[in-house]
Structures are given as C-alpha cells and as structure tokens.
Amino acid sequence: MSGQILILSGPSGSGKSTLLSRLMKEFDGIYFSISSTTRSIREGEIAGVSYHYISEDEFKRGIDEGKFLEWAQVHKNYYGTSLEPVEAALKAGKIVIFDIDVQGFHLAQKKYGEIITSVFVTTKNRYELKKRLKLRGTDSDEVIENRLFNAATEMAHISEYDYLIINENLEKSYLDLRAIFSSLLVKVENYAVNQVIDDWCNK
Ligand code: 5GP
C-alpha cells in the first residue's frame, strides 16, 4: 500500500494556503509537507508550521547533502521540499500535500508521477491578484510586480495540471478542492484489494 501526493500550485496570493488550511481542519491524517525557505517570515506565519525558515548557507548545505526531494528559486529566494518526512508519510499510506511552484511540480512529477494528482489555483485575472497582494500588505511594490510576472509565467503551464480552480468564490473553490481530495481517498490503490475480496467472500 502506498500513499498519494496532492500538489497545489498557483500564484502567491491565489488563496492556496487558505484552501489548504481548511482542508486540513476538516480531514485527519493529511501530511502537509512543510517546505524550507530562505525568505523571511511574514506576519501571521508560524515558524515550523508555515515553513522552516533557514539561511541560504543552510539551504545550500541541504542541497549538497541530498536532503531535498525538489527545490527551486522563486522570487529570489530558495524553497525546497524535504525528502525524508515525505517518504515516511508515503510509506505510511498517507496523502501528502505539497504547495509548490511549477518548477517543483515538474521535478516531483519525474520522481512520483504515478501517485501525483495536481491542482492549479489562480485568481480570475491579474488585476484581482494584484489587489489581493496589495491587501495582504506584506510585500513591497517591487516584490508584488515580481510576483505578478512569475504568476504570468506559471499560468502558461496550467494545461499540465489535472485540475484548475479559479478562485473567485472561496466557498465554491473549497468544495472543488474537497471533491478532488475525497476522490483520492477512494482510489483502488488505497485498499488491500485481496483482503477486501477475501472478506467479501467469507461473510
Ligand atoms: P510564498 O513566498 O508566497 O510563500 O511562496 C512563493 C512560491 O513558492 C509559491 O508559488 C509556492 O507554491 C512556492 N513554494 C513554496 N514552497 C515550495 C517548495 O518547497 N518548493 C517549490 N518548488 N516551491 C515552493
């Protein structure tokens, strides 16, 4: 029996974190892969929960020591997924969730393609994203412009994903994500099928 991976990508500010925290409140047993990053902590974030905040030196050491399943440079900062806890969670048959960018998605696909379900989350347009980033108030105008540029680059990869959520209405978006997640719970590979058949025959 092996676990599944659910990847969420999409522009920073599209609402991925809000959707994911709601999913994790509702369902037990999800393993959310906490990435490491060299970017500084944002107001409202918690070290060790939102990210592991580490220095660039530490990050580079991690790369050299093969500690990352994938890593990427996004908005001039490094972000990476730790290999060991993810492998352990998969071995335990869990659904592992990654909130990673398109580069990370490509790398994860190479390694775990068969067990990945991928979702791209975005706003209805560029203007809406800019508005949300400004409202969040955590980034300078320069960083916001950089994020908008990256968002446009990432949008070009939408067709590589299994599902698309255009997050105009949080309630609807959550129901869509919930439906995708629920479908993973009933995948045949989650079951010990021989056992299911034996039980069925012997009762
Ligand atoms: P933010 O700075 O807004 O938290 O994240 C910026 C971008 O980095 C987002 O697109 C997010 O999905 C991505 N990201 C976060 N963690 C990782 C990771 O471990 N690997 C990769 N490749 N991207 C990540």
From TrEMBL:
Pfam families the record matches: Guanylate_kin
Residues covered by the Guanylate kinase-like domain: 3-182
Alphabetized UniProt keyword annotations: ATP-binding, Cytoplasm, Kinase, Nucleotide-binding, Transferase
Catalysis performed (reactions): GMP + ATP = GDP + ADP
GO cellular component: cytosol
tRNA processing in keyword set: no
Record: residues binding ATP: 10-17
Gene Ontology MF: a single term: ATP binding
Domain of life: Bacteria
This enzyme's EC code(s): 2.7.4.8
Cited InterPro entries: GK/Ca_channel_bsu (IPR008145), Guanylate_kin-like_dom (IPR008144), Guanylate_kinase (IPR017665), Guanylate_kinase_CS (IPR020590), P-loop_NTPase (IPR027417)
Subcellular location: Cytoplasm
Job of this protein: Essential for recycling GMP and indirectly, cGMP.
The family this protein is said to belong to: Belongs to the guanylate kinase family.
HAMAP family linked: Guanylate_kinase
Protein name: Guanylate kinase
Name of encoding gene: gmk
